[in-house]
Amino acid sequence: MNIFHENSVYVTNIRFPVYAIDYDYHFTTKCLEEPLNPQYSGGIAKNPEINDGLNGWTSFGSSKIETRTSKQGNTFIVASHRTQPNHSFSQTIHVEKDTMYTISAWLQVSRGKADVVAMIRTPNGDIPTGWVIAKSGCWSMLKGGFNGNFSGPAELYFESKDISSVELWADSISIQPFTLLEWKAHQDQSTEKTRKSKVKLQVVDHQGQPISNATIMIKQTSSSFPIGNAMSSHILINTGYQDWYNPRFKLTVFENEMKWWETEPLPNKDDYHLADAMLQYVQNRTILLRGHNIVWENRDMLPQWAKDLPRPLFATAIERRFNSLVPRYRGKVIHWDVDNENMHFSYLESQTGENTVYYYKKAYDMDKGALLFLNEWGTIENPNDIVASPAKYLAKIEEFRTLGYNGTLGIGLQGHFDTPTIPYIRSALDILATANLPIWITELDVSSRPLQADYLRDILGELYTHPGVQGIMFWSPWQPQGCFKMCLTDNDFNNLPTGDVVDDFMRRINHQGLISSTNHDGYIETSLYHGDYEVIIKHSAIKHQSFAHKINVAKGKDSSTLIMKLSA
Predict the structure, then answer these.
(1) pLDDT grade, residue 95 (50/70/90)?
(2) Coil, strand, or helix at residue 91?
(3) Where does the record place the GH10 domain (predicted)?
(4) Is the C-alpha dihedral spanning 79, 83, 86, 87 positive or negative?
(5) pLDDT tens figures, 285-337
(6) Over the stretch 334-372, which tens digit does the pLDDT of each residue have?
(7) I want to staple 168 with a disulfide (CB 3.0 to 4.6 A). Which of 4, 5, 13, 79 is the partner?
(8) Structure-derived torsion over alpha carbons of residues 196, 198, 203, 206, reported in degrees to the nearest 10
């Protein structure tokens, strides 16, 4: 039996139509008195709202499980007498291979607050699917996902390392499967909604009368969605590198040349010759530049001479670094990665006593024209990374605001992938998008492994189509000895499979050339990616046979069709 939901996406493949349930991008950070209804009415979860006692739920480990009812009459499940982190409640589900699963639930703890993760036990091991910082006294939403890479039974359970007299409570639990075709339909739907606009063009003569059967050729000249790639200093002298790079990218970041150890290799001895030369190179070619980075919380990434400085001298060195770098490139970079990886590391804070917010306030005072970024790894790449989980990332942003930082702020997600978990990426972006801040993928690559190019293609499809993402940077600067994790070319600048994926991706999100004819009222209607276009119109009734217009297609405030009148 086919079950067709009221809100559905209609997609087709070669053989038969498919009705895909709409993906629910909703997430809330609010801690509520009562949980919201489960997404997808619970999906394949049995008894998702705990309205049928413990039906479908069993004890995981030695915990005691029971149901309780709130003063408002809401029933939920409780795990108590926990002696191990994974002692909770569980439900057995059937997983299908080549299926995407999204998970959501509402969690609460009996005391304080705790990091809680939803886990899936499979024959191949236990998989984390999503995190939440659960609190006592109110309900917090968890959202995550996992790949169905086998067919058979699996067990959903919850885990928290806070076990001493802490009970876990849960309600409105949902597990929703999507086929690969359905998942792709969500991406296509999001592309049409967030990356493109419907456009209606009318061709009229000099008297304002419509011209029918005019040939219209539409060519995109630039895209509104920024895509860039890191570069190394080899680009200054290697013409092969230049010839490959320049036609592809109008946005870049320097791999190392702006980092502290490069610009101040000896104390109080600045050396900006490479960074300045590369800046001149990109400016001459109208390539925009991200500033990476001002300081780095990882001690291993400091200049050698700064690693063991006494605390007062170290603080002075940091001040000098800011005063040397930021004014020099003020107005010349669009972004700054200010205090790199400050969720995973805290060496600067431990040595100076200054919270990372101090450095953002300082950078903002020095360069109000650039967007200042947090920049972390693991948030979308690794469901095991509790340090920089989406929930922890939002908590860091909240900390910034609480401590009085009101300047510009962007969410930087490095994106250093091994084997990606596509549903987890989407759920993580859903969570982060609630901050209403620009989200950029700042250092995208996939480590060398079988299916590296296929993984890159899948990741790009997910990132580009998510409505929260505003830009993508690849981290593939060419080095003759090999790239950091992912090269796009060989040393003769012939594309590797990963390079072909990038080229194909950039072709697919741009209109290379559309040709159509106007109807009897002089109109054509189409859907165009946001960006700048040249429109060439040809008709025998037009003087000189043809004329050209330049138009810009931008995302509007609503979904109405953009109507333009082009006069001959």
Answers:
(1) very high
(2) strand
(3) 212-505
(4) negative
(5) 999 999 999 999 999 999 999 999 999 999 999 999 999 999 999 999 999 99
(6) 999 999 999 999 999 999 999 999 999 999 999 999 999
(7) 79
(8) -90
- 96 is an active site residue: no
522: left (phi over 0), alpha (psi -120 to 50) or beta: left
DSSP string, 188-256: HHHIIIIIEEEEEEEEE-TTS-B-TT-EEEEEEEEESS-EEEEE-GGGGT-HHHHHHHTTT-SEEEESS
CA-based torsion, 539, 541, 547, 548: positive or negative: negative
CATH of domain 39-185: 2.60.120.260
CB 290 within 8 A of CB 329: no
* Single pTM value for the model: 0.94
Q: CA nearest 360: which of 345, 349, 347?
A: 349
CA 68 remoteness from chain centre: 38
| Single-letter amino acid code for the residue at 377 | W
- Distances in Å between the Cα of 276 and the Cα atoms of 156, 267, 282, 332 are 54, 19, 10, 11
Check whether 11 has a pLDDT greater than 50: no
Query: Two tokens at 127?
Result: 């998989």
What is the rounded distance in angstroms from the CA atom of residue 40 to the CA atom of residue 20?
12
Map out the domains of the chain as residue ranges. Answer: 39-185, 205-232+514-567, 252-284+294-480
Task: Determine which one of 49, 264, 381, 443 is catalytic.
Answer: 443
Q: What is the mean pLDDT of residues 160-187?
A: 93
**Which residue in the block uniquely carries the two structure tokens 């999507």?**
178
308 Cβ contact list (under 8 Å, min separation 6): none
The catalytic residue among 341, 376, 381, 462 is 341
The secondary structure of 322-365 as a DSSP string is HHHHHHHHTTT-SEEEEEETTTT--HHHHHH---HHHHHHHHHH
Q: Which one is the CATH code of 205-232+514-567: 1.20.1300, 3.40.50, 2.60.40, 1.10.10?
A: 2.60.40
Q: What 3 state SS string does 358-406 have?
A: HHHHHHHHHCCCCEEEEEECCCCCCCCCCCCCHHHHHHHHHHHHHCCCC
Encoding tokens for residue 568? 């001959």
CATH topology for 252-284+294-480?
TIM Barrel (3.20.20)
Cis check for the bond before 293: say yes or no (omega within 30 of 0): yes
C-alpha 122/C-alpha 150 separation (Å) is 9
Q: Do domains 39-185 and 252-284+294-480 have the same CATH topology?
A: no
CA distance linking residue 8 with residue 279, whole number of Å: 49
The full length of the chain comes to 568
Structure tokens at 527: 């859907």
Q: Are 116 and 128 in contact (CB under 8 A)?
A: no
